[in-house]
C-alpha cells in the first residue's frame, strides 16, 4: 500500500466532523508507527529484553 493510499484510508476512517488538527494528529501517529515497522524490518529495532529494562528504569525512579 502506498503512503497516499494509507493516508486516505486513515482519513476515511475518521468521523465526518473531524478537524484538520485531528486528521494531522492521526496521520502523524500512523507515520510514526510505520517508521517503527520500517526500522524493525531493516534490523534497527530494540529487542524485548532491552525494552523491559528501559521500562523498569522509567518506573523505578
Short characterization:
By secondary structure, this protein is mostly helical. Helix content is 74%, strand content 0%.
Characterization of the model:
The chain has one domain (3-59). It is 74% helix and 0% strand. The protein has helices at residues 3-13, 20-41, 48-59. It is flat.
Coarse morphology: flat
* Count of alpha and pi helical runs: 3
Helical percentage: over 70%
User: Any idea how many domains?
Assistant: 1
Radius of gyration: 16 Å
User: What proportion strand?
Assistant: under 5%
Measured between the Cα atoms of the first and last residue, the distance is 42 Å
Multimerization status: single chain
Sequence stretches where pLDDT stays below 50 over 5 or more residues: none
H/E element sequence:
HHH
Average pLDDT reading: 93
Q: How many β strands by DSSP? A: 0
Structural class: mainly alpha
**Largest sheet, if any?**
none
